[in-house]
């Protein structure tokens, strides 16, 4: 079956039913409440790192270079003290035995207050690394290992692509308190979040970008290569445990990272993919649920998303020695972009946020909030586990047997992403998997799904829309994404070694619609009355904030996309920009194929979905009714910043 047919069928039988944002936030709030930590007006708390000391005082590093301490951070009147300042964008913080440890751009630093006046007086460099000055050379950490050593990660620079412009950029490094450094793993691009799971294994989160099809989480062990080749520039340096050489990674333009890993030793595919725009757009911190006071999810991981201002929940298992697992939505609606999460002494989670230069759904430029469990467990899919036959879904409470035993209550489709030098990847090779049988456990809490044609190396969208609990209530969140690296006991229909690669590079989306007329109407004898040009810019913006035409004018509209991300433009009726953007967000897995253009009478005209470095031209007659018609990029999460006004005047 052709992919187009499959998608058509998919659209017909599996409409995505994601509730409007505010509705889901209201529901989530019944179980987990977001509370503000008030910040004094004169403090710009763009949070880079969070750590509690042994007295319950919260340390906060900021991107502006301060280290604040906050006494009684859960109270209505927390007490802020500037503990240290003049630091170079510290994007992490840890506390150990009376000292703070933090990564500045070029070093790991230990900071202490020896005089006891509440302000730092000793700044000690533990280990430093070179810096070439690129704005994107972020440094994160440290995270302490149980043995007292520390981990830091070094972001790639950005020059229109990721660049390891100085030694160890793109690496995970281990550093002893005495300042001895051991490189551990590379292939990292934008490793803003990393840490240990409940078993003590190291994971890091990655953002979509070049060589990275979508957000993801990867288990890192010594010698691993996680996918972006830039860091391999240093793999032959003394001390490197990584064997792969830079020139050995070639752009196949078709393989997935999983398939490539089966052909070449040392490549580590992710344990969990976070499908772009469906589960977030820029993963950040990882936090283990290390207690049973936070609901029924002890031992699972929470993963934050900076761009979508939300937290996701992850359950992982190890099959054949390989980590894999599922991500679920958990809580959205935070005030700004989440970079850090830290457990407070009261088992609430402190959530540190910032969005300067990195747009986010939450509009505040920075925030510190707490996520508090209300003591009432939500009805959720608690875990999804892979089996030889399909998946076992465990619920947080017993389910209605009739709904849970019906295969029609579940929908599964699987897909993957390409591994190539291009920024991101379209959803690739999407197919529907049939659930042909379900058996329910005695206690009514686990449904065993029998699924045809499982494919190893694919991401499975598992939806359970039909499920109710014994009192008739529906799931709080009814979908998750399971990354199937290994099928227990073998099986499956997909042989990666025999695979010859997927279709070429980026989809040539060519939207055919009466709202995108790409040839000048033959009746326009004298050509268009006016040509409007709109240009995209970095940071999810248009260069032109306002365009103007006369009512009824014949318009030639040019959209140029010199940016490194995909963008489009939709011109909408006055006041309808949020409605249209929401509809686009809710297109789900079919979004990209539709160019993120939803069907709506509020949407008047639109462009194609443009890949980086391309343009589009379309023609329309300006509305006869004067007014402020907004234009917006409907690519998920772009619409908050990427918009402007088309003024139609008399
Ligand atoms: Cu855009």
- What profile does the largest beta sheet have? 8 strands, antiparallel
Low-pLDDT ranges: 1-21, 496-508
Look at the structure and give the CATH class of the largest domain: Mainly Beta
Shape, principal axes of CA atoms: globular
Main sheet: which strands, in order across?
Answer: 20-21-22-23-34-33-29-30
Strand content: 35-45%
Instruction: Give the helix tally.
Output: 5
Q: Give the number of domains.
A: 3
Please count the beta strands (DSSP E, at least 2 residues each): 43
Topology:
Blueprint lengths: L2 H11 L7 H9 L2 E5 L10 E6 L5 E5 L4 E5 L7 E6 L9 E3 L2 E5 L3 E6 L9 E7 L10 E6 L5 E5 L2 E2 L3 E2 L7 E5 L5 E6 L6 E4 L5 E5 L8 E5 L37 H7 L8 E3 L8 E6 L12 E5 L4 E10 L2 E10 L6 E6 L5 E6 L11 E8 L7 E6 L3 E6 L5 H4 L6 E6 L11 E6 L1 E6 L5 E6 L6 E6 L15 E6 L45 E8 L3 E2 L3 E5 L3 E8 L8 E3 L4 H9 L17 E4 L7 E8 L5 E6 L10 E7 L1
Parallel strand pairs: 35-38, 37-43
Antiparallel strand pairs: 1-26, 2-3, 3-4, 4-5, 6-7, 7-8, 8-9, 10-11, 11-14, 12-13, 14-15, 16-17, 17-18, 18-19, 20-21, 21-22, 22-23, 23-34, 24-25, 25-26, 27-28, 28-32, 29-30, 29-33, 31-32, 33-34, 35-36, 38-41, 39-40, 39-42, 42-43
Bound molecules: copper (II) ion (CU).
